[in-house]
Amino acid sequence: MNEVFMGKKNSELVRGNKSLSSKKWVAASLAGVLWIMPVIGSTGPSLFSLGSASVAQAATASFSVTKLSEEVITSGAMMMKYKFTTVRSGKSVTGLADVVRVDLNNPYVSVDVMTGKGGNLTTRQSTGGMAAETGAVAAVNGDYFNTGGEGAPIGGQVSGGVVVSTPSQLDGMYAFAVTKDRKPVIDEYTFEGMLTAEDGSQFPLSGINKGAYNPEGGSSTYSHANAAYIYTDAWTALERPKNSSTTPTEVLVENDIVTQISPDAALPITVPKGAYILRTHGLAAQFVKAHLVVGQKLSSVYTLRSKTTQQEFDPSTLQMMIGGHTILVNNGKAATFSRSTSSIGGYRARTALGYSEDGRYVYVIAAEKNNNSAGLSLTELQSFMTNIGVWKGINLDGGGSTTMVDRPLAETSTTLTFNTEYGTEQRSIVNGLGVYTSAPQGEVKGIKISGSSVLLIGQKATYSLKGYDTYYNPIDVAAANPAWSSSGGSVTVNAGEATAVKAGTVNLKATSGSASAETKVTVLGGDDLTSLTSSTTTAPLIAGASVSVPVNAVSKSGATIAVPAASLKWEFIGFKGNVGDGKLTVESVDPGVTTGYAIARYDGFSTAVVFSAAASTAWENFENATYPFAFTTNAAGVTGTAAVVPGSAERAGSKVLSLSYDMTAGTGKMYAYAQFNGTTGKSIPATATSMSVDVMGDMSLNWLRAEVTDASGATAYIDLAKVIDWNGWKNLNIDLSGSGIKFPASLKRLYVVNVEEGQDERAKTGTVAFDNISFVMPSLSSEAGLPKGTASMSIGAKSMLVNGTKQAIDVAPIVKDGSTYVPIKYVLDAFGGNAIWDQNTKKIMVLRGAKALDLTVNKKEFLLNGKRQSADVAPLILNGRTLVPLRLVTEQLGLTVKWEQITKTVTIES
Length: 910
Prior knowledge:
Layout: H1 10-22, E1 27-28, E2 64-74, E3 77-88, E4 91-103, E5 109-115, H2 127-134, E6 138-141, E7 157-159, E8 162-165, E9 174-179, E10 184-197, E11 202-205, E12 207-208, E13 228-232, E14 249-254, E15 257-262, E16 275-280, H3 283-291, E17 298-306, E18 312-313, E19 318-323, E20 327-330, E21 333-334, E22 350-355, E23 361-367, E24 369-370, E25 373-374, H4 378-387, E26 392-395, E27 404-406, E28 415-416, E29 431-437, E30 444-450, E31 454-456, E32 460-462, E33 464-469, E34 474-475, E35 483-486, E36 491-494, E37 497-500, E38 504-512, E39 515-524, E40 529-534, E41 538-540, E42 546-548, E43 551-555, E44 560-562, E45 569-573, E46 575-580, E47 583-589, E48 595-602, E49 605-612, E50 617-620, E51 629-633, E52 639-646, E53 655-662, E54 670-676, E55 682-684, E56 690-698, E57 703-709, E58 715-721, E59 727-735, E60 745-754, E61 765-776, E62 790-794, E63 799-802, E64 805-808, E65 814-816, E66 819-823, H5 824-831, E67 834-838, E68 843-848, E69 851-856, E70 861-864, E71 867-870, E72 876-878, E73 881-885, H6 886-892, E74 896-900, ...
Parallel strand pairs: 12-13, 31-39, 41-49
Antiparallel strand pairs: 1-29, 2-3, 3-4, 4-23, 5-29, 6-27, 6-29, 7-8, 7-19, 9-10, 9-19, 10-11, 10-17, 13-16, 14-15, 14-16, 17-18, 20-21, 20-26, 22-23, 22-26, 24-25, 27-28, 30-33, 32-37, 33-34, 35-38, 36-37, 38-39, 40-43, 42-47, 43-44, 45-48, 46-47, 48-49, 50-61, 51-54, 52-53, 53-61, 54-60, ...
């Protein structure tokens, strides 16, 4: 990196780009969700608010890092998983981070930039998609980019010595590079270039393949004002770029010869292969008119310059460069932030790059934020990086864009390393960083069993034997015909097909000649689950009705597992039915039955689908709404409207509730509310177990919620959608059974939330709309016809009063350890419902209305609608009769209980 730049022609740049697209290269991608105001006219806000540079906080003594595992990806690249622990607001917090360590001393491994689709700018693609296309063995998301632009990185990008995109004129934006002699470099760079006409006249070249942005420190607030930019065939979008402040003059240059000039107009073509278009404005356009002629030569030279040393660098000496953001680590210590980080604060998923003090190792870092990890602040990220040995490192685009993929040992393709902030979704981004291998095929080094590590009873799964060579690259061992065995009786295996028989953990073993491999397989039993739920919780009780009943289990470790049909046993109460191909069909309804149940059982764990003659109640379609709606907000500067308006397109001829918002002048966590009926809201008159609403999304990535005030005056917040990631109308179904809402209640408002954390990723303006709100109300449907009234029982008395009539009971209520126990049979006789007793498991299932309650003798845990919960007391058996904790059962079934201390009398009401 010590040579002085001698100049490079644009024709070489074009040829280099061609070699770029034909080369196998992979880049890990971080770019994706920086919200930037489009530049319109010659004024506007800057791309980033620099302000004064933030000072990085010193690493806290409470931050610790533990390596959990490491596995070879390929020769020279290692995947390492870490656990970090820190203290926030006095509480200990843990999380996970994944690091791909690349050994630059290994000649077979390299890192490079991957770009969009086909190696082109303006064609966004997910990290995993780019990795698959380019053959990367690992990858992460890359540079920041303007989500409203064509799709070009904010920072500079070099691949194979070719400048694909030049750095923007922004302060404190660092970049990561690797030289062709395999030395890592992190620095700030500027771009300098010069155009020379055939008559010798010259004009500065401002950049290559850049979208419009607001520069810092210059004389203009518009990047392209009075400037000339080159667009190569890597730029596939027809617009070059959007939102020009003046009409451009464009010039087509092929083989250094001007072949077209379009005065005061953009050429209506994409850039031809091997050519480039020169886009000019203002003074640059005047240069074109005065000095360029079709058929004459136009040459260009350019250089990169270090802002730190002022040294010029020939891009041909670089193997790759990718832009980033602030510097995080310098000389092995947390560095002062080179840019303001206020817009990317909070505890988020993070992506970063760094290298070791001796320059041998490159660290590709992704910190997780999901159900298993709490994310990191930028200062915590600095602590993590210094803990694992980073000498110098930078921040890349993070938050919801943070994505890492890697190729597990012996596998042929990459998979998602961890769930992103939004699950398995991978955002489409402009570029990323990929890890590549050029290792030759080696000898067989080892074999590995590939297949699921977790099964459910009755589930069948296929396992395969895969191999890897001395360079840790996958090899085909399919012809090995291994012998299979299982260490225990929980799993049987035949020719690689395993069947889960009972709960437990086994070692599955494959042997081929002298080589063997083992993997641990756990079969989950009912005791290993926290919930068992069907996506359909209510359905119409009509002969011939058919509903989808996919059932999911959640393990105590938090994993969600789709339960195979073979693992479930179904029982029908109140009707005859069958389940096949994922659908439950009602064959016939028993005479006089208004509520039926389909019970799905898995190893003692159960859940129920409630069938009712009236499963859903229309609540509001806004066609005849006479009460007022109003727009309200929590933040100064936020404006908007909330009103019932005529629908458009597919809702033409109907009315919808429209909520428009503009949060651009607000700060912090911002809300835009559509308020129902002043401060009172609209009544939800009876117990609702689920809610359905049609929502027109605006792809804002904001949070959509509802606010309910219940009968006790408490406020309940209902998530309609964690992310508004769709345009157009979509039906949302929300389970309310675990919300704890006491009915009757009132829906107070529907609203959009733009949270402060990761605010740069979400739109601050937009419009959503609502229609056809309905609730499943068991008290109006599945609870219809249940007996109403009052029942009284006295401790020790073998009789009870039901609506004033005395009835005999064979077991008297008792008080044990301060809790009252009653025979559940007589409660259900009085108030309706069914009880199913299993002598073998000592379980009793109580069904009433929309409630399915599973109790086990001598166990304090119980299941309510398929979800495991805890109680203070457990059912017991007395004189051959099962007694249940009165208050627990009656309150879970929607009944109320009163206790009279003097007479030792319990009164139950419905």
